[in-house]
Specification:
Chain A: This is Peptidase. Chain A: It comes from Streptomyces silvensis. Chain A: Keywords: Signal. Chain B: This is VWA domain-containing protein. The structure holds two protein chains of two kinds. Chain A is built from two helices and ten strands. Chain A is an alpha+beta fold. In chain A, strands 1, 3, 5, 6, 7 and 9 form a six-stranded mixed beta sheet that branches. Chain A has a four-stranded antiparallel beta sheet with strand order 2-10-4-8, with no helix packed on it. By secondary structure, chain B is an alpha/beta fold. Chain B has two domains: 199 residues, Rossmann fold, CATH 3.40.50; 145 residues, Jelly Rolls (Sandwich), CATH 2.60.120. In chain B, α7 links the parallel β5 and β6. In chain B, α5 runs parallel beside α6 and α6 runs parallel beside α7. Chain B is elongated. The chains are: A alpha+beta, B alpha/beta. Chains A and B meet through β2, β9 and α2 of A and α1, α7, β6, α8 and β10 of B.
Amino acid sequence: MRTTRLAALAGLLGLGALLTSGAAFAAPGDGDGKDGKRADAGTSFRTATGIEQGQKGTASASTGDYLYWSFPADAGRRPTVEATVKLPESASGASGAKWRIDVYDGLRRRQPCMYGMQARTATGSGPVELACTLRTVRAWSDTWADDPLPGTYYIRLTATGLRTADLGQPVTAEVEATSKDIGGSAAVDGTLGAPLVPGSQPSAGEPEDGWASGWWTDRWIWTGAGGVLAALAGVGGYTLTRGRGQVSSPSGA
Amino acid sequence: MITRKRFAVGLSALVAALSMGLAPAAAYAADTPDDSETAEGGAKPKVELVLDVSGSMRARDIDGKSRMAAAKQAFNEVLDATPEDVDLGIRTLGANYRGEDRRTGCKDTEQLYPVGPLDRGDAKTAVATLSPTGFTPIGPALLKAADDLKGGEGSRRIVLISDGEDTCQPLDPCEVAREIAAKGINLTIDTLGLVPNTKMRAQLSCIAEATGGTYTSVRHTDELTDRVGQLVDRAADPAVNPVAVTGADRCSAAPQLKPGLYTDRAGFGEHRWYRVDVAPGEELRASVSVGADRAVNNDYGVLLRAVTRHDREIVRGSAAGDGRTDVLSTGLRYPKPERDDDNDSGGSGDDKEIVCLQVSHSYSPAAGAAAKGKPGLPVELAVDIVDAPDGPSDVAAFGLGRGWWLLGALVLTGFVGGLLWGWLSRWRFAVWRTN
């Protein structure tokens, strides 16, 4: 009898593990994007080019241009934006310019970077590597807070502090947005009526497998497993008080 | 029976998969404007290439050829690659007048090929006839080019290719560009400088900055071809054009906005008010970008406030920045609860609330900048109305728990419960037995 129960418990836990790993596997961010889709940068919020997570956004532009891409990010994930700027070898004056990426949410609110080299000065040798890791996207937040919410995110790449002589030189750039699944520790209650996707413009659209419904979190497994363990411990405690082998049936009385 | 069930499940899965595959395709088709809208002719994007044909274009310093030859070669390649759904025109400046009179020379701008459906042969023949001649009247050429692009609802783009700064002062081409942009006709000017010097860079990038365009220096023919081609392609990209609106200086006179994208101008120290009606159970989302289209001081900010009719602030979005920038943006959301027992609710008959949006910025004109107040800085305002969110009843999702402390606490509670129950039933058993 006891063995069967243990087996059942083990089975339940195994199922739980399978579910979590399945959810992680299905999550976006590991694909290599669609090859045919154009990913050349736009020049404003309005014309930002939509890329998917894991897809490379490209640009061949001039120093001084403001380059915009947008990508979708869902709740429970921590997006990271990486950018590489390649300056031409002949760009003698382009060194000394500071390159910077800024990330904005679907309401065009600037989002701070938790870590990553968000800005770097071009030294003239080799490409400029930039990175920015955002806070974990939450399913809901107060209207007064600017917490990251599920929806479109804009990337702006530009050179700041340029001298006039450096303007207009050819550069190429690549950006990529990826995200890491943070899991149930970031699962908050409440959901938005609709993700923060600008309604009046063609934008990044939605993640590969749609927006999360907000229903699934691995807290279900933790709480369920806790309930099962509590029941087992209850049975254990009960048996302890009965002692060993003293099976006395009421019919014997 | 079981087989039939399986078949039904398989069929429904197939249907689901098909509908999932089809839905994004349909959405994408709706986004591209080249289907129905452009067929009507109203929303077709228009591009005019404005080419400097002044005397200095004779200089032979681009890949060993003259600047004019490089421009002609680039034009031929760009004309071949122009997308079908773009109306393209060509205007020249300084192409005809051979004399020395500055006043006549500064009026010398001519439409070489009218803006419209492109006949590649005609356009190429027209370009081939050009020979470098006169002055560089950039300002008048831009004004004329803006006229050429009049009409229609599509986006407009001027691509200016020049090899020298404007020789027709006092009309400052940078001011002209700003005036054109302020007309609210979605016009962007991109500039390309052939073998530029510092003064020319400053002027051409000022023109580009004034309209949200880009500036590029060109030293090789292929750079010129690639860039002009890229700019023409960019004009064909689907983009929603904002609607021009004029905000009021107070809430009561503010124009009412429906969800959409709007553009306005806000001068230094000015406030702009707009009005949005929000019904219970809806969420208002607004974002605003204020552009720096001229030289401004290094520190600046922008503020977007949502206030009730009675001047109570509901929520605000603000942003500050420093250094070189194109725009500074912020946004806010205001979810209106389903049940309304707030005194501030606006309408008397219907229960829609009037929310006033106030836009202000703290840019200041840089010392010595030509443009001070007029026209104001470009404002882009996006307004959206969506369903209100489901508020949380707990910090964690569904109030569920997580972690080893939770498991420990549950196990301990279960164990203690089991023990107590065991003792209780033992005691009861003993009592029953003794009776």
